[in-house]
Amino acid sequence: MPQGLGTGWWTYLRYDQERDRPKISWTLFRRVWGYASPYRLKVLGLLTTIFAISGLSLIPPLLYRDLIDNAIMNGDTSRLNWLALGMIGIPILSAAIGFGQRYLSATIGEGLIADLRNALFNHMQRMSLRFFTHTKTGELMSRLNNDVVGAQNALTGTFINIVTNIVTVVATLAMMFSLEWRLSLLSIAIVPLFVAPTRRVGRKLRKIRRKSLELNARMNTLMQETLNIDGALLVKLFGRQADERGRFQERSKAVADIGVRSAVVGRWFFMGLGLISAVGTAVMFWIGGHMVLRGVFTVGTIVAFGAYLTLLYGPLTSISNAHVEFATSMVSFERVFEVLDLPVEIRDKSNAIMLPDVTGAVSFHDVTFSYVEGGDGGAASLGLRVDRHARKNISTASILPQKPSRQLALEAVSFEIKPGELAAFVGPSGAGKTTITYLLPRLYDPTDGKICLDGHDLRDVSQVSLAKAIGMVTQETYLFNDTLKVNLLYAAPDATQAEVEAACRAANIHHVIAGLPDGYDTRVGERGYRLSGGEKQRIAIAKVILKDPRILVLDEATSSLDSQSEALIQEALEKIMKGRTSLVIAHRLSTILGADMILVLDQGRIVEYAHRSETHSAHELLLEKEGMYASLYHTQFRDTCPPASS
Question: How far apart are CA 604 and CA 413, in angstroms?
């Protein structure tokens, strides 16, 4: 203990309390109450049941005293019968009120869980892609499940216990002093023996609680990564089942160990408290017995006093540690609020423009973009950054662009696409092509410069109207584990069956669906794994057709498909690109030849550019320059255009 604090038990106790006091700010408390306030009438009813049950718990000791001092001592049979009925009736009444208390507690708790989960999910939906590329899905699942349930327990469990204990202690002490003030003071004198160990163990349990939540989140992350279809496939392909079993056993054991530690710490603690309670009760009966022998009070009084003593020590122990216990339970609220407080990187302005009729004029003005400067979308503040050491060979497929090694993904990129034109982007891997296609639908915002649609800066346009105007087909097609019809209607929930089938015919996939046993009601499996790559791509094209956007963003990844699927997809793409502004990452010469403009990117810059003239195509103009495009043509594109018959 530091010098200058003086000596003595209470001085040390105050120092011990201040040294590691759990932080419960009024701001946090008011915010928690903000979620509980919609249930304030039910909370009031809950408090009423607490007072009622606490009041009823004080009656049995009085019945014991009356039974001994009056009914038995005086041989009053009628009084004995009524007291026996009272001893039966009070527990029945208390149990009935307890049923109502449990109903109110469950109603408040489940409503609170739903409210917190909705708030978390809504906030996560508003986060940018940068957040999700730096965050483990399993961690987010832990916040939505474990922490939300823990937050609910803080109110419907810990809070109720604290209020119940306070009411019980106050009422019990009042009854004890009314019976015998000297024994009451003696009973209170033992309380300091409860306080110090209670505070110490409370701090330790709080740390264990937070560590337990973190370990559970790590275990959930591993399960989510390895038990989804992509993770399971990778594990099998690399023959890493034994390694993953070992990693899971390690994390599972850590969760079990922290649970055992929590149980053991709590058990030793309560064993000590039980011993102290036993000593206090024994001393009270010893001294009280001598007072009975001297005729100070009756036998019934000391029996009633002993019953009240059992009602006192347990709640007193909890109250002495109430702030630690409450702070421990609030850990879950803190973890939930950590997510809710993350700033939204991409948000609408208060006066955001709703684009009524989009013509499709797209322009980039000195656009520079860095994945590095944007940070991690707030994930690091949660400790949610991807574990670099945990997964070296296992990763899940993603449609999202990965952060490049260089500082700038794009640097001073400028171009303009007129309504209805087809712009083809070519260049080596990592040149910045995919980054451009993700900036247009505002999945990220430029670091510098601006992007305009019909002359409006995208940051001035509402995200809803922007999403309606742009349709995107990516290299990796993601499908929900539901029916084909549900996946198709995701693009246009109000579409009729006839419209769905028309879109599928245009995408050259209707005949495949019609040949399935359940047709459009066929379930596609996790991530659509029951379909081939070409079939999934055509489903994605059908969804875009249903959406009917004015602008198309296409990553024409058909090079890995068989020639028949490639030809069908290419035919479908040509249909939907007619009359629409299209930005295409081109992998095929046929697409490049049909482009109105070609932009060649390298290291985040536009190094070559050509626009169709009256006499020459953009392709011909770029070949004449004998630059990077000509080199790419000779090495990549020249043999990618299949014969017309295919």
Answer: 8
Q: Domain ranges for the chain, please list them.
A: 26-340, 420-442+461-637
213, two tokens: 């939540």
Helices 299-320, 181-189: axis angle to 10 degrees equals 30
Q: Kindly list the strands in the beta sheet with 448-453, ordered across the sheet, starting from the edge strand earlier in the chain.
A: 410-417, 362-369, 448-453, 456-457
- Hey, what amino acid is at 186? L
- Torsion angle (degrees, nearest 10) of CA 537, 543, 549, 551: -10
DSSP string, 382-440: GT-S--TTT-SS-----SSPPPPSSS-SEEEEEEEE-TT-EEEEE-STTSSHHHHHHHT
Res. 489: pLDDT tops 50? yes
CA dist 17 and 203 (Å) reads 10
Task: State how far the Cα of 253 lies from the Cα of 234, in Å rounded to an integer.
Answer: 24
Is there a contact between 262 and 211 (Cβ–Cβ < 8 Å)?
Answer: no
- When pLDDT is averaged across residues 122-138 and rounded to a whole number, the result is 80
Distance (Å, whole) CA 269 – CA 271? 5
Extract the tokens encoding 120. Answer: 């978390």
Q: Which amino acid is at 366?
A: D
**Cα distance between residue 104 and residue 106, in whole Å:** 5
Residue listed under structure tokens 């306070």: 166
Backbone angles phi, psi at 393, to 5 degrees: -110, -10
Q: Burial letters for 72-85: b for 16+ Cβ neighbours within 10 Å, e otherwise?
A: eeeeeeeebeebee
**DSSP secondary structure letter of residue 483:** B
Token pair 């995107």 in the structure block, residue: 472
Answer whether 0.85 is exceeded by the pTM. Answer: no
d(CA 20, CA 32): 23
Amino acid making up residue 299: V
Residue 147 is classified by DSSP as: I
One-letter amino acid identity for 150? G
First to last CA, the chain: 86
Sheet holding 597-602, edge to edge: 470-473, 551-555, 581-585, 422-426, 597-602, 605-611
Q: What's the DSSP call for residue 561?
A: S
Place 640 in a pLDDT band, splitting at 50, 70 and 90: low
The contacts of residue 104 (CB under 8 Å, 6+ apart) are: 42, 45, 46, 49
Q: Compute the distance between CA of residue 290 and CA of residue 301 in angstroms, rounded to an integer.
A: 13
* DSSP label at residue 410: E
Confidence of residue 397 (pLDDT cuts 50, 70, 90): very low
Superfamily of domain 26-340: ABC transporter type 1, transmembrane domain (1.20.1560.10)
Residue 552 contacts residue 578 (beta carbons within 8 Å): no
Say what the alpha-carbon torsion angle 432, 553, 456, 617 is, to the nearest 10 degrees: 80
What is Dmax (Cα atoms) for the chain? 124
**CA–CA gap between residue 44 and residue 150 (Å, rounded):** 22
Check pLDDT > 60 for residue 390: no
Distances (CA, A) of 442 to 426, 435, 462, 547, 586: 21, 11, 10, 18, 21
CATH code for the part of the protein at 420-442+461-637: 3.40.50.300
3-state secondary structure of 128: coil
Adjacent-strand bridge partners of 364: 415, 451
**Rounded Cα–Cα distance for residues 311 and 303 (Å):** 13
Neighbouring residues of 220: CB distance < 8 A, sequence distance ≥ 6:
138, 139, 141, 142, 145, 146
pLDDT > 70? residue 407: yes
